[in-house]
Design goal:
Blueprint (H helix, E strand, L loop, with lengths): L2 H12 L27 E2 L17 H12 L5 H6 L8 H11 L3 H5 L11 H6 L7 H8 L30 E3 L5 E4 L13 H11 L19 H10 L9 E5 L2 H15 L6 E5 L8 H6 L16 E4 L4 H7 L4 E6 L2 E2 L5 E2 L2 H14 L2 E6 L12 H5 L6 E4 L10 E5 L1 H4 L4 E2 L4 H16 L6 H16 L5 E7 L2 E6 L3 H10 L2 E2 L1 E2 L4 E4 L7 H22 L5
Parallel strand pairs: 3-16, 4-13, 5-6, 5-7, 7-10, 10-11
Antiparallel strand pairs: 1-14, 2-3, 4-12, 8-9, 11-12, 14-15, 15-18, 17-18
Helix pairs in contact: 1-17, 2-4, 8-16, 9-16, 17-19, 18-19
């Protein structure tokens, strides 16, 4: 039984009234919450796609030319070479020239593994079980599901007549590029309250009327823990057991915050340890260091040699982590949810095991939650909802800064060599953070979120159960991943045509990351437009073999 089935069964048992109106959001405060009983805000679904297996056979380039392209013209060994990194010297450029001369149309196969998802030859590649691929290339395949659809497939979805957006953004509603009303299912990443939370906007407006500092001047800003924000955060994180927030630093982007976390780890034992172990499929940002830390091939393409000191391991392989750690390893870096794989969460046993290995080997554990909405499971951090583990460094961003680019680093004093506070360097981000934390405290968040998240997942599963191309759901609090047998690009496009913003989560998955608090009318409209999008896809794909 998949978790979608579990949610459907729960819906049948509980018979929730989906149309029961809730309290309307106050423009001065987000809507009030009724006290909710404790519930497990994290759910992992039982459907798992079969991983693609690589082979162990490497073919000589000359043999490939003679046997594969001149005699058979099949080019069966091409995929391996296309996956090879430039530095491995497999002669990719010569192969491309040969394909052009012999007119086999192999360029089209080369493009199949690029980010655009043009994988015309995917079925042939998946059935070929005798070639070895480098780890990151294997990742690009293993994140793809054998859906029977080419990710190049694109349908034409008629745009629904949407009303013009009236007023300012509010809740989950904002204007699209043409001024029409758009329901943004990713609004939680802007703010845990969605758009238009008046106290936060007022705090930011007040800050804008004052001196914002000199962004081009590199200097230390004295903060001995006496600033209002520092005291506020101390109180807010005082009860947290998953991380000791002795040191707190505010950076102007989530990427720079993650870079700072890695720098802390490298300085922990600077004379011997500098390596960071990350996961295949991970996405940690777009700066040079963050791209290197990410385990996705397309984030490395075209940049030449990447930064030294990073390695990538399969998600869930605890023995690989144990074997990879050496005297030069400073940290293990991971995100508890793989947003590029239909928002699939890490297994609790894996998280516990990684923490134990780090303890055994004296290695730091860095948790990256910059792309996960803060408090979205009922706990402040998602990883602490999944497993009872303690992180040495945590990096957060989504939902805390009302759409501003910023990141918050929390670290234990034993990692930073004492209590370090740097929270006043960026006044506007600091104002947004303090106002957000104050409003969360006012509304009892995130403690009341778990039941809200569970109810939402049950209703979404109930609405989607009749669509055969919907494979499963991965639910971790308010983060919902939907696996389908259709290209993610098509699902995103169909949703956009219906006035709904969702994001791709891999080749055949989408994700929703709504605010922690949702107005009842936004909730109803989310369900209606999601179903409408699925109905459009169902009509377009009728008669096609899924």
């Amino acid at each position: 039984m998949t978790q979608m089935d579990e949610f459907e069964d729960e819906s049948t048992k509980d018979s929730p009234d989906q149309d029961q109106p809730g309290d309307a959001i106050d423009r001065d405060h987000a809507h009030q919450l009724n006290p909710a009983p404790e519930a497990d805000g994290a759910g992992r679904l039982g459907l798992e796609g079969a991983p693609l297996e690589g082979d162990d056979q490497e073919m000589d380039q000359d043999e490939q030319e003679e046997d594969e392209y001149e005699e058979e013209g099949e080019g069966e060994g091409q995929e391996e070479d296309e996956y090879e990194y430039e530095e491995e010297g497999e002669g990719e450029e010569e192969e491309e020239d040969e394909y052009e001369e012999e007119g086999e149309g192999e360029d089209e196969e080369e493009d199949e593994y690029e980010e655009e998802g043009e994988d015309e030859g995917q079925e042939e590649d998946e059935s070929d079980e005798d070639e070895t691929r480098p780890p990151l290339a294997t990742l690009a395949d293993s994140n793809s599901r054998d859906s029977g659809f080419s990710t190049k497939t694109r349908f034409q979805f008629p745009m629904v007549a949407l009303p013009a957006m009236q007023g300012e953004p509010l809740g989950m509603r904002r204007a699209d590029d043409d001024g029409r009303e758009l329901l943004d299912a990713m609004a939680g990443r802007n703010s845990v309250f969605g758009f238009g939370c008046t106290p936060i906007l007022e705090a930011m407006a007040d800050c804008l009327s004052r001196y914002l500092g000199d962004g081009s001047f590199f200097s230390d800003v004295a903060d001995r823990g006496e600033s209002p924000l520092s005291k506020h955060l101390d109180e807010f994180f005082a009860s947290s057991t998953c991380v000791s927030a002795d040191s707190m630093l505010l950076l102007p982007s989530p990427d720079l915050a993650l870079e700072h976390a890695i720098q802390i780890a490298r300085r922990f034992r600077p004379d011997k340890s500098f390596r960071t172990i990350a996961l295949l499929g991970s996405d940690h940002g777009r700066t040079g260091m963050c791209r290197t830390a990410s385990g996705r091939p397309h984030l490395h393409e075209g940049l030449g040699p990447m930064m030294a000191g990073f390695s990538h391991l399969p998600v869930g392989d605890l023995e690989a982590v144990r074997a990879s750690i050496d005297d030069q390893t400073a940290a293990v870096l991971l995100s508890p949810i793989d947003l590029g794989n239909a928002a699939l969460a890490c297994a609790p046993d894996y998280l516990v095991g990684v923490r134990e290995v780090c303890n055994e080997r004296g290695v730091l554990l860095i948790i990256d939650e910059t792309q996960i909405v803060f408090g979205s499971t009922g706990q402040k951090f998602v990883f602490s909802e999944l497993a009872d583990v303690h992180a040495d460094i945590v990096v957060a961003s989504s939902g805390l800064f009302s759409g501003l680019s910023a990141g918050l680093v929390l670290a234990s004093h034993h990692v930073t060599g004492g209590s370090v506070r740097d929270l006043q360097r960026y006044p506007l981000q600091a104002a947004a953070l303090m106002a957000t934390i104050s409003e969360m405290h006012h509304h009892g968040l995130p403690a009341d979120v778990s039941e809200i998240a569970r109810d939402l997942a049950v209703v979404v599963a109930e609405q989607l159960k009749g669509f055969e191309f919907v494979r499963d759901m991965n639910v971790t609090g308010m983060t919902i991943g939907i696996e389908t047998d259709v290209s993610a690009e098509d699902v995103v496009a169909a949703a956009a045509a219906s006035g709904l913003r969702v994001e791709a989560a891999g080749d055949a998955g989408i994700r929703l990351q709504p605010p922690l608090l949702m107005r009842e009318e936004d909730r109803r409209l989310l369900l209606a437009r999601l179903v409408e999008s699925m109905e459009v896809i169902e009509r377009e794909t009728s008669g096609m073999a899924l």
